[in-house]
Amino acid sequence: MKRRISILLTFLFLFLLNSSFALTEKDFKHSMNFYQKLVEKKVSVEELIFTLDKILRKYKDIGVNLTPVKEKLLVLRKFKGSRDYYRKLEEKPASIDERITTLRRILTKFRNSDADLSGMEKELGRLQEEKARKGKKIEEVRRSRVEKSTEVAEVEEEFRLEEEAEEFKLGERSGPEIEEDFEEFEEFEP
User: Which DSSP symbol is given to 112?
Assistant: First the structure.
């Protein structure tokens, strides 16, 4: 009788162990589905990291393959570090070109991650527009400088020609200049 009870208890224990593993595996799938919903809702990176840490701790002693969870967690932590580096660039006076380059690298590197990149994409677009506006302003200033330098030379030339015309009208030209003009006319005498 004692032997039957111990065998029965062993079977019951094995059944419960197998049942709890099946439930845990289902729970793991449920937890990962919950995580995926968070990704779709585009929650913050900190929330995604917190959720994955919680899943990792909850299922570490169960026979579930946690490698994908660890990989996702590693990528999200690296993204967070890159994002924090970019924020430091914003705080210090970094050039627009440096910030654009950094954002492009981050977006390229983490394109296939679970992190929400839409804010960084908007920032990149804004910086590119700002750079284009500054480029247009610089070009306008350059054109303005060229036009002004050209205008000054043209105005000076016009002013000089007007002075010569006035001198000629008023008879203020000197004798040798007038004689040169008459010599030209003398050549055409009949």
Answer: T
